[in-house]
Design a protein that fits this description.
81 residues; globular
């Protein structure tokens, strides 16, 4: 991984943490539920918790399924505004 990639990843993570810190408890719970539902229903991922197992922590997901899940997450975010 290049230094640029590491910096971008850190910046994205920092941005996500900043956004999450500005949410109310209810918003965080709704977001978590929405994300969990998308993972389960669209990608067949039972939990998003780390389980320290390659088989469980790195699911095989088709790119079109990932794209569809990201689109659904985007739409869920738009609906929440």
């Amino acid at each position: 991984m290049s230094n640029t990639t590491r910096i971008e990843a850190r910046t994205i993570e920092d941005t996500c943490n900043l956004v999450a810190s500005e949410l109310t408890i209810q918003e965080k719970e709704r977001m978590s539920g929405d994300i969990d539902n998308i993972a389960l229903l669209m990608m067949n991922v039972e939990t998003l918790k780390t389980r320290y197992s390659d088989d469980q922590d790195f699911p095989t997901v088709a790119i079109w399924t990932l794209k569809q899940a990201l689109q659904e997450a985007y739409l869920a975010g738009r609906r929440s505004k």
